[in-house]
Specification:
Nucleotidyltransferase, domain 5, five-stranded mixed beta sheet, alpha/beta, 427 residues
């Protein structure tokens, strides 16, 4: 089996075709190209007859449900070998779903690989150009998950959006407290932890300082230090009003995120083995694993190789060479949702006790923090590909997992053994 053409090769061939320097050899006999817009779909059907003649038919459909149904019926009646459309924002999704209902899996291709013919630019010409490229086998379908997974994507991506909003609101709360002269964040690593949140809410509610300090719990800071940090230099009524509203919004967003997370995990019950598998990698928790799976799926054969998966995500270095000199290695556009998740995983893994942390430390010496995070995210994606392909959990050679479990649980175990009389209490 011949190796698939790379993106750069496809773009070069497409350019030669546009300029008239190459002829094409048809691979598919019956193809349809769709140029999809918000309110219109232009279609071009190319069919090669038994006697070698080629017929071309153009159709246009509206953007309503009845039009998409008519499109699906027309395409189904044509019985094409390939149906191809560009990935145009979100507008491709409805025609794709309509075709999917009649048993036709359309190819959704990267718009960068099928730029239109130079000269007169029309929707009809775009659709015909797509059909010509598909007929010659010069386009490659992007990964499109099944319908149920695409619906779960809506939940996962909205959860990511809510997470960004939540982070913004928490930063806003920090700035408001600093504006009022409250320096609680100097002593408390996370003011949105249980103790920090309780103290901030008590302060907003106007409770006495003694009650506020009682909320500190097991914080390492002394009551005297917390007293000094909580003394406002200028806490006006307007400060309190904005703080109250921001805190309410934070709690509202947290509640919304919890609902989205429950809905997402409920929809992934069939993927529990893969969810558990991914959580063996340092830096990936349950929600992170769930959000990643709805983006890339569990069948790695859809991508073919770890390199193609990384290219689809846009997390691997690009290749731009001329005259033997490499000009740029910057990453290219891809799935921004997956890339954001992977960078979050890499940030967490770089702070954990594992080989990935050592890898990050070695990279950061010569690449800096940001590039090292991207490189570590790339490495983690290749690990994820191998794990989902083989079904094997992550094993870190630098970590003694048994010793780590004992270290984490030994104090609790000893306490219970003393309590029940299995070992004597210390004098």
């Amino acid at each position: 089996m011949a190796a698939p053409l790379g993106d750069s090769t496809i773009r070069m061939i497409v350019l030669l075709l546009k300029e008239g320097f190459m002829d094409i050899t048809p691979i598919h006999k019956r193809v349809i190209g769709l140029d999809v817009h918000q309110n219109k779909i232009s279609a071009c059907a190319i069919a090669e007859q038994a006697d070698g003649t080629v017929t071309v038919e153009h159709r246009e459909f509206g953007g309503f449900k009845r039009d998409r149904k008519a499109l699906a019926q027309w395409v189904s009646a044509f019985a094409p070998d390939v149906v191809v459309m560009e990935s145009t924002g979100i507008y491709w999704k409805s025609p794709y779903a309509a075709l999917e209902k009649v048993g036709i899996a359309a190819w959704v291709v990267n718009a960068r690989h099928v730029k239109t013919v130079p000269g007169r630019k029309t929707d009809v010409a775009d659709a015909q150009w797509l059909a010509i490229l598909a007929r010659a086998g010069l386009v490659r379908a992007s990964f499109i998950p099944p319908a149920d997974v695409r619906h779960l994507r809506l939940i996962a991506r909205q959860r990511q959006k809510l997470g960004g909003m939540l982070a913004s609101e928490k930063n806003r709360l920090h700035k408001l407290l600093a504006d009022a002269g409250i320096r609680l964040n100097v002593l408390v690593s996370d003011i949105h932890g249980q103790a920090g949140r309780a103290m901030v809410k008590a302060l907003i509610a106007g409770k006495p300082m003694s009650e506020i300090l009682d909320c500190a719990g097991r914080l390492r800071a002394t009551r005297a230090e917390l007293f000094e940090a909580l003394q406002p230099e200028e806490l006006s009524a307007k400060h309190l009003f904005v703080l109250t509203e921001v805190m309410s919004h934070i709690e509202f967003l947290e509640t919304m995120m919890a609902r989205f997370e429950r809905e997402l995990l409920d929809g992934l019950q069939a993927w529990q083995p893969q969810l558990v598998l991914l959580q063996t990698i340092p830096g990936i928790d349950t929600i992170g694993a769930a959000m990643l799976l709805v983006e890339i799926g569990t069948d790695m054969a859809s991508f073919g190789s770890a390199q193609r998966l990384a290219s689809w995500v846009g997390i691997c270095p690009g290749n731009n060479e001329s005259a033997g000199k490499r000009k740029s290695g910057r990453t290219r556009k891809g799935n921004a949702w997956v890339r954001r998740l992977l960078c979050e995983f890499a940030q967490a893994a770089a702070r954990s006790r594992c080989a990935l942390k050592d890898k990050f430390a070695a990279l950061s010496i010569r690449k800096g923090h940001k590039k090292s995070i991207v490189a570590l995210a790339h490495k983690m994606l290749r690990i994820i590909y191998a794990m989902l392909t083989d079904g094997t959990p992550y094993q870190d050679r630098t970590v003694d997992y048994e010793a780590l479990v004992v270290q984490r649980n030994a104090p609790r175990w000893i306490k219970m053994l003393v309590k029940h009389g299995f070992i004597p209490a210390a004098a």
